[in-house]
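Let us begin with a simple case.
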Amino acid sequence: MSTCAIASLEAAEPLAGTAATARTWLLIEQTGPWGAKALTDSHLDPHLGRALEAAAEGTGVRVALIRRPGRHADLHGTTRRRMFLAHTSPGRSWIRTTTVTDPGATLGLDFASLGDGDHHGLWEPYTGEPMVLVCTNGKRDRCCALLGRPLAAQLSTDGCATWEVTHIGGHRFSPTLFVLPYGYAYGRASAQLVKDVVESARSGRIALDQCRGRSTWDRPAQAADLAVRELIREWRADALDVVGTDPVWPELAGAPRRAPGDGPLTDAVRSWTVDVAHTDGRAWRAVIDQRADGAPTPASCGAPLGPPTRMAVTSITALRD
């Protein structure tokens, strides 16, 4: 199937509620080629990659490799590399950065605290422009290279603080990216859209066009946040917070309430109520259904067609006006 045909099918699939989930991102500069599983298939020591995966598991921290846009010379002997830590929770977003000679030092990080948003003064505060991270890992999905790399190169040429990044999910929405410090992800992105997103981020706001959701939350909460924003026309990034998600499913009627950022959702759950609170005291409850009733789409570029899985907002009710 051609790229154009895939793009036509994907255009019908909603973007809301499809962002990768991570309260905190650990981004490690790594030049040279990336394999499909870049942490263990690149010029990063694979033993370190496996150790980082194990250290981050269940903490809310997601580890990814980054590199500057352009030709990727095989700089296996690079002695210094940039690293970033970014937390994305509303009202507590931050970015810290450092330059290291040994990326193995990351194994000494307190991943649990970082996932909770506590950096304890680690590294230096990042004070630059909003960071744009474009997925370009062609070994993971060829569309990320075909569509992502040209976008990253153009954004870099235009002066955006742009990095290429490894797997962030949603390849079928290429070019896909996320923007720090707030952690909102976007798909089917154009250079002009990204510039608008960056301009919004400079003033503490977000753009909803082509938005997939804030990585802070799981998929139902991402969809609820975007739906409430659209309803009340609220663009300030930190004006809304998700304060709880409850499963709505017969055999899980007595399941405990989930807090934002809790572990993976059980496959049995197909409906949730999500409570969204505004900093001014207002609150809403959104009912979110997981559905697979749209046109078949490929899970990634060139993959066979299959049923889509989307987050459908079935209702929004005001709890406090």
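The second case is a distinct protein. As before, the sequence precedes its structure tokens.
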Amino acid sequence: MNIRHLTFRLLQVYVAVVRSGSFSEAARQLHLTQPTVSQQLKRLTSAVGEPLLESRQGRQVTTEAGAELYRASREVLGRFADFDDYLAALGGGERGRFSIALVNTAQYVLPRLLGPYSQAFPEVDVTVHIGNRRQMLTRFERQEDDLYVFSHPPSLAHALAGRFLRNPLVAVAPRGHRLADREQIAMGELLEERFLLREPGSATRMLFESWLQEQGLSLGPTLQMASNEAIRVGVAAGMGLAVLSEHVLPPEHPDIAILPVTGLPIESHWQFIVRRDRRLSHAALGFLRFAEGHLGECVEPRFLSNELDDLLLRLDAAAGTAPRGHPPRGQTLKGI
């Protein structure tokens, strides 16, 4: 057999003839003329070197060699149909893998979105990296991930950003603090108390210090701690005050009071960041689309700041893909 002369189209025509038992019916199903089908079968018989069909009582039936070719053809076409389905799932973001890098504070919220996403798309492998802003900027510069989450995104020409959640920074104190029951507090009244701070490079610390500078204020004694969780526990234990993301606080926090400081909360937003100069995987794009549609189910409505639609439109335009909700351009394997 000269296998180089076999094509998907020849195998498709042959399978259609065997299934229908008729050249004319196969031609109708494939939208071809009957002479074209007959010619294709002659080419296939010549390539195999053995008779494939014989006429019995007005129907085309397989010879012994023809029956074996029919089984092989169905297996080949079936495997490529499965591959076509795989490509459709991959292109639709239903399988594959992606990596997402989060600043520390975002770990208190993103699992609420990643959990439902993983249940909806179990065939997608997700890798999550967590660190402070400086560490995430390094990962961004090295192009180590598909998606990044910052509250203060890098101001780079090759960064695309889309807000998705409010990240208010509030002043917190131990529940029994002397000012906890006040209706309004000036920040100046707190400056002599010790503040617990994250390390330099933390976005929360950077935003807080920038806000203080705008107010013409500076802190007194401070204590640096390694994580938001350590600061939260330290505040509850009476070690000092802090400015933290409201998301760091559990729904019930009997040991901590949010102080009504004038000018607070400091408004910031978490944003998904994508590099313009890196191809975004189908799975990562699918996650962004899932986030756009399901954020309201995963977080309190008052925190929503969903501008992902604009980011997705820009990504679609940059990739030259079809608008969302429409199939991608191009012919599938099933149409070969």
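The longest helix spans residues 64-91. Confidence is low (pLDDT under 50) at residues 322-336.
Keep these points in mind for the review questions at the end of the chapter.
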